[in-house]
Amino acid sequence: MAAEVAEQPVAAARTLQALTSLRPAIRDLADGRRHVLFAARGSSDNAAVYGRYLLETHAGVLGGLLSPSVATHYRVPLDLSDTVVVCVSQSGSTQEIVTTQAWARECGAATIAVTNVDGSPLAAEADLALVTRAGPELAVPATKTYLTQLVAMAVLGTALAPEPTVLDADLARVPAEVERLIADRVGVGAAVAALRDASHVVASGRGLMMGTALEAALKLEETCLRPVRGYSYADLRHGPISVITSGVVAVLVAAPDGPLVEPLVELAGDLAGRGAVVVGIGGDPRFAAACALHVPGPDLPEALAPLGAIVPAQLVVEGLARELGLDPDEPRGLAKVTATDPHS
């Protein structure tokens, strides 16, 4: 896992180079279609959450998350003639997602596959395949494949924007920012120590950073075998915050700019007032000051911050797994390609 985290700057650069040229094909495929729906599971689903927010906030395109069970179990025929369905699977072989893509085409959708495996069933059967260039990923927890999926989402979100190239200068800085975060590791050790001693852990973010919070929670659960609840800021405020008390570590992720930094500063103070130890990832100086422990994030605008903000979380997770005497490469009971249903 550590080796594959270290490969991410190169993987991100290769993926940007490979996919940016596909923007015209993405625009042509989406021409005349008003909606984009994403189908995915696990880490790929968290990447899709970012894709949805980027489409809506940057490109002005209505996005949403598709429930694969509508295709695989209910088998409901829907009218998707005005929709692009984006199916996301690092292996391109998760049967549920392959089946969902076939169903979407039967329902009239244009289909885009996001996968790390060229020639996989998902890539071969899509109208357009965005094949990421992470290279083979041997550790079970998705790190470089997740980051390159985020790159694919950035390409998709910018391709459908009125000005597709407006973020290109910042996109070009992503590999260097990822490399800097891997090398610096500022605050990682202290965050590992806090999580090691926690009785309960919650993770939260909002908007474009929501997928990052969910991915951090997922990685802590599957790699460190700690139950972690991932919430949107709003959902945490709507009830679950009442159980926050001493012994809880709250992991908050924030972009360095944008309209949600201030609410997350306020949330950090509120959680600390309830007795939680707040570990902040990213954000601005005020956010860092509001957190008991802080791990710096990327110097990237909010629209692209998720491409860097996941890296500190990965470093913390890998370090915590080792601190707990666990093998981060092969978490208990998990495999690289997961069958959603036992018979599938």
Written description of the protein model:
The radius of gyration is 19 Å and the shape is globular. Strand 8, helix 13 and strand 9 form a beta-alpha-beta unit. 57% of the residues are buried. By secondary structure, it is of the alpha/beta class. It is 48% helix and 15% strand. The protein has helices at 2-6, 8-19, 23-30, 42-59, 68-74, 95-106, 121-125, 144-159, 168-184, 188-196, 210-224, 233-237, 261-273, 285-290, 306-323; strands spanning 35-39, 62-65, 83-88, 110-115, 128-131, 200-205, 228-232, 248-254, 277-282, 293-295. It has two domains: 2-166, 3-Layer(aba) Sandwich (Rossmann fold), CATH 3.40.50.10490; 181-323, Rossmann fold (3-Layer(aba) Sandwich). Helix 2 (8-19) packs antiparallel against helix 9, helix 4 runs parallel beside helix 8 and helix 9 (168-184) packs parallel to helix 15. The chain is built from 15 helices and ten strands.
Tell me, what's the shape? globular
CATH class of the largest domain: Alpha Beta
Structural class, judged by helices and strands? alpha/beta
Strand order across the largest sheet: 2-1-3-4-5
Number of domains: 2
Strand % is 15-25%
The mean pLDDT is: 95
Could you give the distance between the termini? 28 Å
Query: Which ranges are low-confidence, i.e. pLDDT below 50, for 5 or more consecutive residues?
Result: none
- Main beta sheet strand tally, sense and closure: 5 strands, parallel
Radius of gyration computed on alpha carbons = 19 Å
Secondary-structure element series: HHHEHEHEHEHEHHHEHEHEHEHEH
| Count of DSSP H/I helices | 15
CATH homology group of the largest domain: Glucose-6-phosphate isomerase like protein, domain 1
CATH fold description of the largest domain: Rossmann fold
Helix content bin: 40-55%
Number of strands: 10
CATH architecture of the largest domain: 3-Layer(aba) Sandwich
